[in-house]
Amino acid sequence: MRKASKEHAYDHVKRVFHYEDDKKGWIKLGILQRIGSCWRNSRNHLFHKVYDEELTFEQNIKRKPARIEANHWKKFLQYRRSVEKNTVNRSKQQYTHTGSSKMMARKRHEEGRPIGRGEGWTMSHKKKNGKYMNEEARLVGEAIELIESQDPSSKEFSQNDSLAQVLGKEHPGRVCGLGIGTCPSRCFRNIPEQSDYGVQIEEYQMEIVKLKVEAAELKAEAAELKTAAAEEKAKRQRMETEVVEEKAKIQTMGNLLTYVIQQQGGNLPPEIVADLDSLRSAPTSSHAR
Fold first, then answer.
1. What are the structural domain ranges in the chain?
2. CA separation for the pair 253, 256 (Å, rounded)
3. Where is this region: Disordered (predicted)?
4. Residue 13, CA distances (Å) to 21, 31, 34 in order
5. Which segments of 162-196 does DSSP mark as H helices, in order?
6. N or C: which end of the chain has fewer CB within 10 A?
7. Is residue 215 packed enough to be buried (19+ CB in 10 Å), middle (13-18) or exposed (0-12)?
8. pLDDT tens digits along 203-220
9. Cα dihedral angle (160, 162, 168, 173), rounded to 10 degrees?
10. Neighbouring residues of 195: CB distance < 8 A, sequence distance ≥ 6
């Protein structure tokens, strides 16, 4: 019963029965609870009194009591049929859980750490005292705990985690342990199965070895280029040293020749002076090589 409807009924009661309510509102609360209980019991009594299970839904609609609108009666029957159907479905459940509509994200937030499907399943099928709801839930929970103790990787969310190993393959359109609105194609789209991990690890290892070999080859080539560059630099330095030494020799020879001629009281002929100048400025034979 909606809150507005309860308040409306309470106003009618207050007009008929005069009383002084206390400050905490306990009397009003009690009256509202009685109104809700009477409303619920009257609906239940009306349904079982008028509704005939042997008749069809359309035939039961025609059995509408007086003073009830046809549209309201139809909606009431639809609601009661859905309630009966949900009751039957709940009776078929093997594992009664205590998690209500709490999602895995909320559980992780409350725990403050990552929670796998297996651990989430066991948490939502235990009572406050730590015991499982029934024998079937206990068997499944103990199997999950055993698998996770033997294989810690089964705690991680995947198509082959501890919960999947115990309960089997997922049904199309839903994922066990994740609530309403999830499907395998969306949840496991980018998560490989546990059986594929070994193959992927081998592929990664082969790729790493290949990259290491290529890196070693590049390192060797870089060392060879560095050695060749060092040799070329040393050769160039030797050639430059030889050029400087030959220029110094030519300069010394020219100075000696000039000195000898001057001691004899003469000067060098212009053509010899020109030849000496050209020798000083021209590159040596070793430099030309």
1. 3-91, 104-191, 198-288
2. 5
3. 87-127
4. 13, 9, 11
5. 162-167, 184-187
6. C
7. exposed
8. 666 777 788 888 888 888
9. -70
10. 160
